[in-house]
Design goal:
Helix content is 42%, strand content 18%. With 84 residues, the chain is α+β, with helices and mostly antiparallel strands.
Length: 84
């Protein structure tokens, strides 16, 4: 893994998953009523897949649904940090 979040986010942008590629086709070039959705944005110490800063909307595309207490706590902490 690269040394910091910005370089890791850049690496993720350069190697999107198939789901991210599909969603990006609809979000790129302001095809969503003029709103911008940058990819792999560092927010509050986390990397969000897509973010619309104007509407404060964060879209996470991939990943398993949290199922353990530890995973649920980590996801909740991430959601709180990003919401602030």
């Amino acid at each position: 893994m690269p040394g910091n979040l910005a370089s890791f986010a850049r690496a993720l942008r350069n190697n999107p998953t198939s789901a991210e590629k599909k969603l990006w086709q609809g979000l790129r070039r302001k095809q969503t009523s003029g709103f911008r959705f940058p990819r792999q944005v560092v927010l509050a110490g986390f990397i969000a897949d897509f973010v619309c800063l104007e509407t404060r909307l964060v879209i996470e595309v991939d990943g398993a649904t949290p199922s353990t207490a530890a995973e649920l706590a980590r996801y909740a902490a991430r959601s709180r940090a990003i919401a602030e």
